[in-house]
Amino acid sequence: MAAESIAAGDPTGWFERVYAAAAAGQAAVPWDRGTPSRYLTQWAAARDLHGDGRSAVVVGCGLGDDAEFIAGLAFRTTAFDISPTAIATARRRFPDSAVRYQTADLLNAPTAWHQAFDLVVESLTLQALPDPPRRDAIARLGGLVAPHGTLIAIARAREPGQVVHGPPWALSRAEIDAIADDGLESVRIEDLTDPQMPWPRRWRAEFCRPATNGPPPIPPRAV
Question: Is 85 in contact with 172 (CB distance < 8 Å)?
Fold first, then answer.
């Protein structure tokens, strides 16, 4: 599906095709595990993370597991996906959810979202994009982060020059570093290895947007 969409000049169109086929019982969503990302939950636990009513957005939320986890930490959570079927499925899965699920495109996000969120969660979405438009998506991601806000990004990791036939397309360190180009500062970039995973290496990268005033930032990561 990805190859067909890319060849047709629609590199993000295959997401809706996958979710629609899954909703019809004709396919499985290959990245759906039915639980939030353990790289996200471990990061949150290490920080003793609590939203205290602050705002969060989950990018490319899929079927909603990461979004529900973040909402459960007392963040006012928005979650979006380019696939209308993914959003409809997430709403059906969590009918009483406090999460605001909506269809949207990171490459053309609502103007009101500019520097609007205290926490931005991006897990495995950038790596699902070919380049183009992955470079544009990286450039736009940081624009969601509010002053004093935090961004956490999780992706497969690759070496510079390593050829990857995706999807997914693992990210280089340079691509991870480029997330900071929109005025963010790097807090911590982890190169994690789990030999039990089909692709053992993962980036877990944390960034913040500095500010001279405004609400306090999310507390620093526990050491």
Answer: no
Round to whole Å and give the CA distance between 165 and 163. 7
Asked if 60 and 37 count as a contact pair (C-beta separation under 8 A), the reply is no
- For 58-120, the three-class secondary structure string (H helix, E strand, C coil) is EECCCCCHHHHHHHCCCCEEEEEECCHHHHHHHHHHCCCCCCEEEECCHHHCCHHHCCCEEEE
Backbone phi, then psi, for 156, in 5-degree steps? -60, 150
Place of tokens 């990302």: 37
203 within 8 A of 137, measured Cβ to Cβ: no
Q: Tell me: the pLDDT tens digits for 13-72?
A: 999 999 999 999 999 999 999 999 999 999 999 999 999 999 999 999 999 999 999 999
154 closest CA partner among 118, 127, 182, 181: 127
Domains of the chain: residue spans and CATH: 33-208 (3.40.50.150)
What is the distance of C-alpha 165 from the center of its chain? 21
